[in-house]
Amino acid sequence: MKRTFIAWLLNLFKILFWIAYIGGAITFIVFAIIFITPIANDFSFTIVILAISAIGAVVLLILLNIAMRIIGDYRARKHNRLILKIKETLNKIFKKGPKQRTFDPLKPYLNQVEAIETASGSFSEENNKEITHALREMKAGAQLQKQVLYSLSAWKRTNGLLLIGWLNDPQQIPLLNEAFYTKDPGISYPAAIALARYDSKATYLALIMALEEGFVERNYVAAVMETANYRDKINVLMEKAPHLNIEARYWAAYLLGRTKDRRVLPTLKKLSTDKDADVRAMVATAFSWIPDRQYTEVIIKLLKDPVWFVKVQAARTAGIFREPELIANLSQLMHDKHFWVRNAGAIGLMKYGKEAVPDLEKLLKDKDRFARNKAAELLGDAGVTQEKVLDLSKSEEIQHLAENYLVEIGRAEAISIIWQETLLAKPSVQLKLLDVIEKIDTPKFKPLLTELEKTASKDVSNRAKSINKQFNKRRAA
User: Fold this and answer.
1) What confidence tens digit (pLDDT) does each residue in 393-451 have?
2) Longest dimension (CA), the chain
3) CA 408, 411, 414, 420 torsion-angle sign
4) Which among 316, 324, 360, 473 is most buried, taking Cβ atoms within 10 Å?
5) Which of 321, 390, 310, 383 shows the shortest CA–CA distance to 351?
6) Over the stretch 358-399, which tens digit does the pLDDT of each residue have?
7) Residue 234 CA neighbour count, 13 Å, CB half
């Protein structure tokens, strides 16, 4: 309580200091003006007295601020010395053999469990277990229970709950359960963290119950459960997940995925047919954390889900699976009425690289503008377009195939791809690309042609000028 009170005082004096400092500065200016002017009446004299008083208040607050800083620094140094003493005591204890060890030297510090916990951070996990066991034997849990129940300091109550979790004292579980059910987040949140530190089925089930009932924010409970110390939590979660309510099933799917343990995959498969779309979407996400090609059928079903955001999550997971069987299903998403589904399908296909080329080439002639354009863009990302540009320098037959291919890319309205390749190509290849641009026949290339007229070699410039004139005639007609 003293520490909290002092911290509160420090913050209060900081605020008061700045208020008084600014007010005092203004008053000092007024005082200086009046001081220069002869005091002509009682009103002026009163103003002078008030100014002097304000300056005195500022000086007093400065002195108090300095004093509080000194006290705060002293307490911090004292606390650090205490931690150092405890470390030295523990070092002496652990220097002895396991049979000769006694933790009695810690008894004088039983009312400073927080300092013991801080000091134990420099020791191994095995030594920490010995420390907490010794503290339980010395009834440190009872001392912390009093701190939680009777301290007027919110900080002390919160810290007491966290320390009980660190001690893993089974006798304090009822207290933690009671604290967990309180409406005050300052009590229920640390109680949740403390319960998660126990290797106990009962405490883990209490967290699952909270996940279902929602008396503590479910995202917070899920975050705590993700780091819970209970060793058999996967089996318990798999058993309980399908029977929870909708909100809890959603978070159970999340937790199962975050385990990244293949044992949970059958349970996730079962949840993939859940009646709630949010649960199915989370299952799709969970599979991205544990990709397994044996469950490709599950992802295919989710890609065909009637709800758009489930398909979005499934498309992202399909990209991570890298299973060729999923490419055709991702291509189908390019025709979906929802933009985000189409976009997710494109992102999923991008993960497959050249494996997706045959399906992407089919999309170049698709009726849907988005599908055509995105397919052309993805083919460019996969390096196929650049390969076709290089083919323009090969045999006549290969040149013809490459030219037709690039025309399809351009007609898919992927203007920027052809534009960029034309600017970067050699003059001989630029001439071939200008033939492609002529066949694509769109005025969108006019700025490029104008630029080539000014900056390219003579042959390229003349060819660009000729095509530009043709575009102008057609436009005029």
Assistant:
1) 888 888 888 888 888 887 776 778 888 888 888 888 888 888 888 888 888 888 888 88
2) 109
3) positive
4) 360
5) 321
6) 888 888 878 888 888 888 888 888 888 888 888 888 888 888
7) 14
Return the sign of the alpha-carbon dihedral for residues 319, 321, 327, 329.
Answer: negative
Rounded CA separation 82/295 (Å): 56
* Residue that the structure tokens 């013809």 belong to: 400
Tell me, yes or no, whether 295 lies in a domain. Answer: no
What pLDDT sits at residue 20? 63
Task: Mark which of 75, 95, 118 sits at the end of a domain.
Answer: 75
User: Long-range pairs for 88-97 at CB < 8 Å and ≥24 separation?
Assistant: 90/119, 90/120, 90/123, 90/127, 90/131, 94/123, 94/127
Tell me which residue range forms the domain holding 460.
384-476
Residue 279's pLDDT is 96
Domain boundary among 52, 75, 98: 75
Q: What average pLDDT does this structure show over 62-89?
A: 85
- State pTM to two decimals: 0.74
Q: Domain count for the chain, please give it.
A: 3
3-state secondary structure the chain: CHHHHHHHHHHHHHHHHHHHHHHHHHHHHHHHHHHHCCCCCHHHHHHHHHHHHHHHHHHHHHHHHHHHHHHHHHHHHHHHHHHHHHHHHHHHHHHCCCCCCCCHHHHHHHHHHHHHHHHHHHCCHHHHHHHHHHHHHCCHHHHHHHHHHHCCCHHHHHHHHHHHHHHCCHHHHHHHHHHHCCCCHHHHHHHHHHHHCCCCHHHHHHHHHHHHHCCCCHHHHHHHHHCCCCCCHHHHHHHHHHHCCHHHHHHHHHHHHHHCCHHHHHHHHHHCCCCCHHHHHHHHHHHHHCCCHHHHHHHHHHHCCCCHHHHHHHHHHHHHHCCHHHHHHHHHHCCCCCHHHHHHHHHHHHCCHHHHHHHHHHHCCCCCHHHHHHHHHHHHHCCHHHHHHHHCCCCHHHHHHHHHHHHHHHHCCCHHHHHHHHHHCCHHHHHHHHHHHHHHCCHHHHHHHHHHHHHCCHHHHHHHHHHHHHHHHHHHC
Q: Mean pLDDT over residues 339-361, rounded?
A: 89
pLDDT attached to residue 22: 66
* Residue 150 and residue 66 share a domain: no
Tell whether 371 is covered by a domain.
Answer: no
Supply the pLDDT for residue 35: 56
The span from the CA of 158 to the CA of 445, in Å, is 68
pLDDT at 4 over 60: no
Q: Please report, for the domain that includes residue 160, its CATH number.
A: 1.25.10.10
Answer for the pair 271, 251: CB distance below 8 angstroms, yes or no: no
